[in-house]
Amino acid sequence: MALGHDCGRALLRLLSRGHAVVAELQRCAESLPAGLRDGDVRLLPVLPDFAVFRKEGAIDRVADSAEKIELDEESRELHAACAERIFRILAAIKKYAADVGRFLEDLDAGAFVGHSVESLLRDVHGSQLLPEAVALLGTMLLVLDERIGGACRERALVLFYRCTVGTSSEPEDFAEVCRLFKSTGRPNGELAVRKLGYPESYFARFPLHQEALRLIIGKLQTGDVYEQGRHYPLPEHRSQALAAQAGLLYVVLFFEPRSLEADFVAMREIVDRHFGDSWVVAYALGYTADLLSWWAPYPAARQALQNAITAGTVRQLQEQHLERLAQTRQRLAELLVEGTLTEEFVAGKSSQLLSLLRQANTGIRWLLLQPSTSDPKLQAVCNISSRMKEQLLGTLVDTALLEDKVKGILGPLVANRDASWQQLKDEAAQSMDDLAVFFSGQHALRRNVRNEELEEFFRSLQQRIEELSCGSEEELLALGRKVAQVDKALDEVAHFHEISQQPQILHFLSDARQRLQRMLRTANLNAEVLQTIETVADLSYAWRALGSYKEAMGNLLASSPDSVKGLRALFLKLASILEVPLRRIRQAGNAAHASLVSGYYSASLTEFMRSVLQDIPRLVFRLLGQLSELSAPGLGSRVSFAELQTYAQRTEKPRQERAQITQRIALLMRGIRETDVAVLGVIRVEPREVLLDGLRRELATRIEQLLARLQFPSTSGRQDLELPLQQLAEQSGLLRSSFEHVQDYLGVSAQQLWRREYGRVVRFLMHMELQALLLKRPNPSAAPQHDPTQPIRFPDAGGGSFISRALQKLLELTDPKTTAGGLHQDWRSVSSGQTTLDSLVLESLMEALHPPGVAAISRLLSLRAAGRVRKAVQGCKALMARQGLPQLVAQAREAALARKTEAVRAAANALASEVGPLAHALAGLGQLVLLRRRLAALLRLRCRLGAGLIHESLAVLDGSALAEAEADEEAAEADGQLPSLWDFVGDGRSSPEELQLRFRRKLARTGELSGLAEPCRQLLQSVPEGSAPLGIDALLALALVQHIATAPSVASPSRKAKRSTAWGKTVAPAPSGSLRSGSLRQEAHAGLAAGLAALLQQLPRKVLQGTFELCGCFIQGLCEGQAWSEGALLLQILGNSLELLGFPREHLADFVPQGLLDLWPPE
Predict the structure, then answer these.
(1) Which end of the chain is more exposed for a tag (fewer CB within 10 A), N or C?
(2) pTM
(3) Element (H or E) spanning 860, and its range?
(4) Total number of domains constituting the chain
(5) What are the start and end residues of every segment in region (Disordered) (predicted)?
């Protein structure tokens, strides 16, 4: 059957699509959300299985409460896309099964003229394609049930139905997909004790033509469909030669379970031929099955296995393979010595090399697969110790290295065989011509040498050599005999007296004979040798089995840095997994399927390679940890010679240890740098990139561990914040300095890598904290900074992250109920006067967390502040909605405008339970804003000192953007014919307005990191003109009135001499160590002032005008009633609010007479 025939093309198209479905199935299984795969207990009420379809109306009652509706929305956000993807894959498997069944029916009905199942199986290609198509369906079903369990499929299908029912996306074949792929009852544990009927009942959902199945099984049972016998000539290698079709046979038999159950003769023949010495079979792309477990429920299959596989035979097989493995390893070590594998050696010893590779690979296959059995008796016999694992891995690496070198030598030789053979023939003929000329007597230097017989003899040999040819099979067979005759003639003539006395002639003859032998070896080279190497070197069966050898690979890398080259050869050997699916896809000519399949397996193989080589960065950082512990005492700027000698002797041992650690790191890096580029499938892997990526991952892990260890005591003292920060700064400083010490050996910029990864970790944790703050379940994979290969834990062992813990500690130290300050001075305790938070503590915070960490705390503060603003606005709306309250507020407004202070006080007291909490909420909001101001100043200072040009550039750019935004409405319309800056930037799909918006958002985020943001003037929540609560200005004024009326005295209780104030009162001086009275008066209510400013910034400007106008009238009334202290306090709060909003204090004159402002000047 030609592959170009309709029948062949149909099979190839089926196989191409099937392999693409398997690749997509595995990709989907690897990205399953944990809640869908394992069944999140919290979301299970809204993720039901098929039981919901059995009760009428149950599907509509899945989300029938407010709590379930919220859970359902979260579940849809997390799982809806994956559920749709699972349905598409299941529908694709259903279609493939239907197409395979239809193809068999058409083949039996004679739809393909000249072809039937029997004729197809008699054909070389057909006997491979037809069993592969059927087995691929079984592979899909087995892989699906293993990777995406029945419960997971049911939950996904129910969710997909709930998301699409009643929409245009609702599929027509949903019910059929549910019937075919409902839960199969596959156990999670031991398969030997699974329920009866699995998996044959599962396979029976996809019925196929029974006669065709029996013919396929018969062909696989008795034939050699892949003609592997020519690559494995020894009888003890028969099971390896038939391994590929044995995997097909294992899968196809589940479609015809009667053979497994009752056909004792056929099963005995199958086991003796295919599974006599190998009971763990690889059936598809690294998936293996233990026949002792899978065939245990079937009498015929079980009896055949029990007769062939016994503890005694298994012990004998293992001893044989281990003995051969030791011999093979010794031989491999000899061949891998530098300089042994030359072109002449490989070309002349190709058969011996093939025999060695064949022996090594068969032993490796048996020792990798068979000990993975689940049978307890055989496990005791086949127990592989860690020492044996290391030896087996060493043999596997050496074998891969030898294969790589032999193919590297033989490949060019085979490709250039004809040209090389012709060149050797010409050189041999030229040698004969030179000898004939020499004995002709016409040579310029030796005219007295003349021998016509020898001249004629060498002329005849020249002619015979020129007549040699290897173009056809007959000529190639005769070539050996002719070359032997010429070689014998040259050997005989060398014994002539006249020739044997001339070393120059003997050297000519020796060279000619060597060229003849090389001609013969070159002629024997063909592509069959390379094909045999590719066949015996196949390692696709170990795709998953090698996962248990990662630890051994890490030990190998640690003990021998040069083993990186061997592991590279091993990964190239593993790339054979791509050949199985891609061979059929290429024959079908489907580029889309080839890209999908090669992309998946190449990425998986590359990731496996990176995970193995990740042990090098881990080892490097372990060594860096040891390096950071080696500290030498400092040396003064001026020392005597004797002190220098003493210092050198005292620090000699640490210096030697430091040198040894540095040398070991350098050797590890050399092994990576000297490794050649590897092409794994369609991905080109650069060793330096692998190293950098590994260092990046490990550095991110170390940074995460450092930040997760930042814990604070439950007490709320200043030292409880400062000491952990100092410890963290010291630890991170040691890690950074040791990393910088070896950066030249690593070939990286330690500072750049540190800052990049530190920023990535902090941004990821900030994203997760934001999700938690918004009461959403954090989904790490949705974070832009998420790296699936190196996930960052959230929450960590301390709960949450270092950002929330540090923020909570800052809030405890600046609680407005117990502290004062934050506006212009440090925070101090009101009761004791001791400093709770000052510049020294904040500098420790910067040294420990660096600018990204401090900016993250500031960002979280802004988010919390936004939440408090929203609650304050909503609270005011709720208050004004109460019955009778709007009238009471309106009366208070009229009283305030009329300067009736007693009436205003009475209204404030009447509303104390409502406006009192509002004042406390404003103080809490102000606490967050003041903390952000101090952190912004800290970031601004650090940016000025560390990156002054960048800071100034950002400041200018920020100012220009602000001026441009303010001038947008006044700007004249631009000439559309003139070029614009926005024509040269952007993606070409966004409008200039969208580009400007994105630019300004990015500039705002950058400004936060450099401290350019002004927290009190930021818009946290936009409240449009019409949506602001009516009467909120009066509520705010009443809250201030209530606060100043109930605020405790901030003066010190000390009984020292008192001094007079500007308004005729006396205030006791502050005791030593406590707040000054002036600063108390200014700072005691800074939180309330900052909260008022932050809230007014979000509201329409008329609210600010109304609030200040009511407060101004109230202050005037207080002054008329001689209530100076209350008036001064309220005036100070209003002045601080205006200052924080960026207005000069003189604006208070719009609301308060200038005389009062002169009476109470600012501190």
Answers:
(1) C
(2) 0.80
(3) helix 839-880
(4) 5
(5) 1056-1077
